[in-house]
Amino acid sequence: MVKKIKIKDQHAQKMMATIASSLNADWAEDNREFSINLPEEIGHGYIKAYDFDHGITVYEFDCTLSKVLHLVLEEATVQPLLILFNREDEVNFEGSESGSKTIKHLESVISSEGLKGTQTLTLNNQDSTCFFLILLNRKDFEAKIDDFLEDMKPPLSDIFRDVNGINPFYHQGYFSLDIAQFMEEFTTTSLTGFMRYVFLEGKVFEILTHFLKQYVDDSRDPNGRKIPRINTVEKIEEASNIIKEEMAQLGSILSLAKRVGLNQNTLQEGFKQLYNKSVNQFIQEVRMDKAKDLIESTEDNITEITYKIGINSRSYFSKLFKERFGISPKDYVTKHRSSEGDKSA
Question: Which PANTHER family match (predicted)?
Fold first, then answer.
């Protein structure tokens, strides 16, 4: 089943009211922050929206839907600048000028489709949909940057002097780890009231500033780019594969970082952003999962398993295994292999 929602007014309150009405869902408002908690028949998760000064509106989607959802941003008097950061499964984008695009995990998009243009986001059912969306009204934003427009250079001047959004353009690429960190801070803050609003607005400007720096960086020759993005992500993923494939003889974190061409701090920060854990935590989890698999699929004893996963101390292995699974490896061996024996008897 497919649901299409046409959105004419892209300010937070009006857009959230439109979405809630179309989904037969309730929505709430608290200090210029709007939220929808999805009912079970639609899926689970939430949609949030925030109105800030100078024409900035932010939308935060973190949900899994039971039906495909098309969000159609229809033509407006002032065509907003759309900036999207995709944090999870693929999101499909279609612009009346730029055509159909697939926005992958960790990719960002900046788009404007011209005065008569429309922009459609397709949220696929059963996918983990998690993205951060900024809609920027350049006419309202002009008041904030007016003193700087005269000295602004391409490609930023091409964007911000076009205050009505007349000229269509589209750019897609991977966003930086800094932006990922700012979004995490935005979505997880426990602040309330006035301090929350000020904090969130500050984070939006941090995200916007770093994204514009990245956009300028992208306009350079690939060999001249200074902000690490996709190649860093690829190297972090390479490091994770090395850990999984070579856990029995894995060296230090420093040697792992050198092997994939990163410094140790970048590797650590990358693991926190991509996997929400440190390199050591990732290694321990991979080793414990492998140990559990070996217990279940082989007749190896605990000492043999300990060495196969790259741990030299049986007592340390037992400690880590119990922390991960709530049971000692010895008891897990007894429990699993005795149950397997009962089945075959």
Answer: REGULATORY PROTEIN PCHR (PTHR47893)
Element (H, E) at 189: none
Give the list of residues 6+ apart from residue 277 with CB closer than 8 angstroms, or none. 271, 285
- Cα-flanking dihedrals φ and ψ of residue 57, to 5°? -125, 135
SS3 of 56-92: the string is: EEEEEEEEEECCEEEEEECCCCCCCEEEEEECCCCEE
CATH number for region 2-224: 2.60.120.10
What SS3 class is residue 11? coil
Using an 8 Å Cβ cutoff, are 279 and 271 in contact?
yes
Cβ count near 242 (within 10 Å): 15
> In angstroms, rounded to a whole number, what is the distance separating the alpha carbons of residues 157 and 103?
25
Indicate the residue type of 149.
Answer: L
Strand 68-73 to strand 119-123: parallel, antiparallel, or no bridges (unpaired)? antiparallel
**Interstrand relation of 43-52 and 33-37 (parallel, antiparallel or unpaired):** antiparallel
Task: Give Cβ neighbours of residue 28 (< 8 Å, ≥ 6 apart).
Answer: 34, 35, 36
All structural domains of the chain with their residue ranges: 2-224, 230-344
Q: How many residues in total does the chain contain?
A: 345
Q: For the chain, what is the total number of helices (H) and then of strands (E)?
A: 12, 13
Q: Which residues, in sequence order, are CB contacts of 20 under 8 Å at separation 6+? A: 26, 27, 36
CATH topology classification for 230-344? Arc Repressor Mutant, subunit A (1.10.10)
